[in-house]
Amino acid sequence: MGEELFGYTGEVARVLRELGAEVGDRIRIVKPDGSVYEGLLMPRYALSRKQIIVLKLDNGYNIGVRFEPGTRIELVEKRRAAPGAIVTVPLLEESPPPTPKPRVYILGTGGTIASKIEYETGAVKPAMSAKELLDAVPEIGFVAEIDAGVLFNILSENMTPEHWERIADEVARLIGKGYDGIVVAHGTDTMAYTAAALSFAFRSLPVPVVLVGAQRSSDRPSSDAAFNLHAAVLTAARAPFAEVVVVMHGETGDTYALAHRGTKVRKMHTSRRDAFQSINAFPLARIWPSENRIELLTREYRERGREKLRLENGFEKRVALVKYYPGMSPEIIEFLVERGYRGIVLEGTGLGHVGEWLIDSIKKAVDAGVVVVMTSQCLFGRVNMNVYTTGRKLLAAGVIPGEDMLPEVAFVKLSWVLAHAKSVDEAKRMMLENIAGEINPRHTVNMYPRWPHEP
Amino acid sequence: MGEELFGYTGEVARVLRELGAEVGDRIRIVKPDGSVYEGLLMPRYALSRKQIIVLKLDNGYNIGVRFEPGTRIELVEKRRAAPGAIVTVPLLEESPPPTPKPRVYILGTGGTIASKIEYETGAVKPAMSAKELLDAVPEIGFVAEIDAGVLFNILSENMTPEHWERIADEVARLIGKGYDGIVVAHGTDTMAYTAAALSFAFRSLPVPVVLVGAQRSSDRPSSDAAFNLHAAVLTAARAPFAEVVVVMHGETGDTYALAHRGTKVRKMHTSRRDAFQSINAFPLARIWPSENRIELLTREYRERGREKLRLENGFEKRVALVKYYPGMSPEIIEFLVERGYRGIVLEGTGLGHVGEWLIDSIKKAVDAGVVVVMTSQCLFGRVNMNVYTTGRKLLAAGVIPGEDMLPEVAFVKLSWVLAHAKSVDEAKRMMLENIAGEINPRHTVNMYPRWPHEP
Question: What global pTM score does this model have?
Answer without folding.
Answer: 0.81
